[in-house]
Amino acid sequence: MNCRNTETRRRIVEEYDVKPVAHIKLLAGQIKHSDAEAVIRDEYYIFTAKNKGNGKTEIIQCGMWTARDFLKILGIKGLPLFNPLYEENNKTISKGTENKNINSWNPTAKQLYNAIMWLIIAWDAKPNTPLFEFRDDIVKYKRYNPFDWKIKRVNTAITNGGNGKTLTEMVDKFREGNNIKDSSCDFSFLNERMANITDGNGKVIKSFF
User: Fold this and answer.
1) What are the residues whose beta carbons fall under 8 Å from the beta carbon of 164, sequence distance 6 or more?
2) Which terminus of the chain is more solvent-facing, meaning fewer CB atoms within 10 Å of its CB: N or C?
3) By the 8 A CB rule, do 209 and 158 touch?
4) H helices of 55-208, where?
């Protein structure tokens, strides 16, 4: 959906229910096309826009300038940035952010959130896919240890869509040219939980984390 200028963005907000659904840091070699007619090379936002008349939902992808304008028009706060990279010039702030996240998130829920966000990046997933529903659910209950079925459904998504590769193997492909934080791709708690999750026949389900 074209959203090139502020006037257009105000019209969109009047005609659509606009909601921010993702705020993601681009990795080395990645670029995105902005619906504001620009090339995105750093951070980007994804919004959903549901038509107030016919209920049809469209997607808006844009860079930070446009995203901030949308958020200002909507009168809401932005989403936390999913940045899996070490920031060499901002180590103190990054460390402080990580510590804050550790205090507010259940550790297993945080790993599951990171896993989902990595899949969104790796598959360039759109908001009309189940991954965003999984992500919203985990964020809503981030202080609680996730149920086995919530871990299992993400594992099933990787099994079905990963062409035989584990999520760790997918992430490893991004390491070239990217200084990836170990904490963003540590799925040890998820692997431990999967070791005790079984199928209908009582057989342990293979972990694809």
Assistant:
1) none
2) N
3) yes
4) 64-74, 91-104, 107-123, 130-140, 148-161, 167-173, 188-194
